[in-house]
Amino acid sequence: MSPTSKGNALKLASTAHDLGGEALRGTLEQNEAGHWTLSYVELESWLSRYAGQELVLAVAPSSLTPPRPTPVPAAPAAASTRARAARIVTRSAAVCGGEEP
């Protein structure tokens, strides 16, 4: 789904309110418990008020909201550097006929 302009997304929310509906605005996230939230509103709880009713659910991602970068786990650089340095010292000692420190 391609993003829409922020103005059009807000117009959609305003129209929903004008027609007696509801709209939420915010960043969609999944909390530690695995529940989807939008501006700290748990969506499952919010939607449960409409259980058994037919709904029209509209979603409009705003083009002005940048996507969140996917976190990349950092490699343990210090441990890896120390291990690499130890291998170099060991190889150097073996090549030069010296003893390993």
Question: Would you write up a description of this structure?
Answer:
The protein has helices at 6-18, 43-48, 77-96, and strands spanning 28-30, 36-38, 41-42. A hairpin with a 2-residue loop joins strand 2 (36-38) and strand 3 (41-42). Strands 1-2-3 form a three-stranded antiparallel β-sheet. The mean pLDDT is 76. It is mainly α and 101 residues long. The chain has three helices and three strands; from the N terminus they run αβββαα. It has a domain at 1-64.
Short account of what is shown:
By secondary structure, this protein is mainly alpha-helical.
Q: What descriptive keywords fit this protein?
A:
101 residues; mainly alpha; three-stranded antiparallel beta sheet; single chain
SSE layout:
Layout: H1 6-18, E1 28-30, E2 36-38, E3 41-42, H2 43-48, H3 77-96
Antiparallel strand pairs: 1-2, 2-3
